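Cross-posted from the bioinformatics board.
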Amino acid sequence: MTFRIAQISDTHLSDYKPFFVDNFVRIGEALRKARPDLVLNSGDISLDGASNEADLLAARALHDGLDLPVRYLPGNHDLGDSQDAPAHGEGAIDAMRRARYLSHFGADWWTLDVPGWRLLGVNAQLLGSDLDAAEHQEDDIVKAIASLGRRRLALFLHKPLFDRTADEIAITGRFVNPVPRRLLLMSLGGVVPALVACGHVHQFRETWSDGVHHVWGTSTAFIIPDARQPRYGIKEVGYVEHLLEPDGRHESRLVRVPGVPTLDIAGFPAAYGPI
Ligand SMILES: [Fe+2]
Ligand SMILES: [Fe+2]
């Protein structure tokens, strides 16, 4: 049986700044009709959970309202950005912010086995951090790979590993930085994931590099204007459907939900300040 994942991302939810809640609710209605086997939020679940716990609470309540099985991965806006990222308004991940995230969303890295596949969810903001949890995560990744058996591997994390190739050297807030990227790939011990899926850029894109299918999940909420962010793929809101076959084949596609507007963050200066 095909395992169907609906990957939502960058929902940026808040009660007191509810700019993106309507889009979430409408996409949620589409998900309830589609009845995927799993809804996976690949991070930036909340508008500003890194500094405002109420946003974590509100975002969790909205997801509970879906009444579907959901797995979560944290984004920079949920528990702070990577310590090695260039400065961002939300500050860097620390033990307190991470603990607060865990109390609302559960484990920030995890595995889930489905027929023919192992899903491995990773906390991208821990990569390259000095928190003890970074080492624990790495140990668990190594264990997950050691017991992979004949399953295909699908890796999920908030940030894209890179733009086009694993040997890029740019230090950015947009991709996993070069050193933690190399360490993460080393911890895979030569296993080549069939699929690497992320969020963070608020664009849908598919690329292939060294046999790996990289899929960027778009946001349910908003896009970032070209003047602020290059156009890598498709700047439209929606979600991504991943179809995983027990024999190891898979496909991924952007799902646009009729009636859900592609909002532009430039129109919401009260969210994160003027663009
Ligand atoms: Fe985001
Ligand atoms: Fe992000």
